[in-house]
Amino acid sequence: MATSPPTTALPTTLQLPSDIGIGNVTIGGYIACVMAKYTLHYARHHPKMQHQVDLRSAVVQFYRPVFPTKSMTMTLREVSIGKGWSTLRVESFQGDKLTTSGDLVVTNFSNEGVTLQTGWRPSPEPKPIDLTKLETDSHPDWISYHCAFYPDGFQRGHSYAKAFIPRTPRREATFVEQWIEPGWDCHPQGSLTNEMIQFIVEMPLPVQEDLFPPIEGKPSTGSIAATLEFAEALEEDGSKALKARVVNVSLTLSTEIKQRLPSEGVRWLYLRNECKRILNGRMDMEVLLFDEKMDLIAISHQTAFLIPPASKIQKL
Ligand SMILES: *[C@@H]1O[C@H](CO)[C@@H](O)[C@H](O)[C@H]1NC(C)=O
Ligand SMILES: *[C@@H]1O[C@H](CO)[C@@H](O)[C@H](O)[C@H]1NC(C)=O
């Protein structure tokens, strides 16, 4: 049976900002956001997809690091166009090298369908919080950690979000919890929007650092214990030269978005990330993202490979 050739969009080429990076590599979650923006733009101008204005899911694979020093070209192919949702495949290249690909599903979250209360809640439940106390950084239980921005710093991308972590981490917890607000230079209105979800879920504090034993009584730099020390002492926080034991190379980032945040964005999101297993360098992570009413906004799964930090500075 003859099939019609796949419809493709004209490739688009862009220059990535070097500020949203870690070492000399662009943050993967940011690349995923750029791919989503391109996809939604394509859908909006397509007669059969113009109502599908929401990104419902994105499964993104990273094949090689993306460098902001080179331009990035994206191509798009229609995989399946449907009435309820459509799937588009985006590929990103630098030079002739494929760096990233993603299958992105667009839909309209206002389309009606079966709605049931599942009664599911994250366990253990997040403790109620007075967000006005976070705004003034005067909460007795939560302390802010905002990675300082240096144009030549290592963790530049992390400055774009500010995190609050519990002063006393829960003893039994296998997860890291944080409240996130926009950080440095985030958005004109300084708010968190759907466009940024893949970026937000990909850059929480690295849980794996907590699992290393302390060296000479000192916790590993990226760990929550060390972050608490930085937050309290306001000392050199690793944003300029990373001293963590490992950095991860993202392999896959799969994000399922549940609902539309208000278009003007929100100030606060609550995030929980949990690592299930790290074996021979391979790590998995599950991230849950909630709004301030503890409504589920997104679920994300990531796999990464852990390597010593120096290799992220060299051209891999
Ligand atoms: C999304 O769907 C709702 C309900 O069907 C509709 O009112 C709205 O216009 C749609 N959005 C767009 C941008 O078409
Ligand atoms: C990868 O490392 C970055 C930077 O330390 C961190 O924010 C992110 O959570 C890590 N990703 C995974 C999957 O651990």
TrEMBL record:
Highest taxon in the source lineage: Eukaryota
Native organism: Aspergillus bertholletiae
Domain Acyl-CoA thioesterase-like C-terminal: 247-305
Keywords: Membrane, Transmembrane, Transmembrane helix
Entry's transmembrane regions: 20-40
Pfam families linked: 4HBT_3, 4HBT_3C
InterPro entries linked to this entry: ACOT8-like_C, Acyl-CoA_hotdog, HotDog_dom_sf, Sec_Metab_Biosynth-Assoc, TesB_ACOT8-like_N
Protein name in UniProt: Thioesterase-like superfamily-domain-containing protein
Residue span, Acyl-CoA thioesterase-like N-terminal HotDog domain: 17-99
SUPFAM superfamilies for this protein: Thioesterase/thiol ester dehydrase-isomerase (SSF54637)
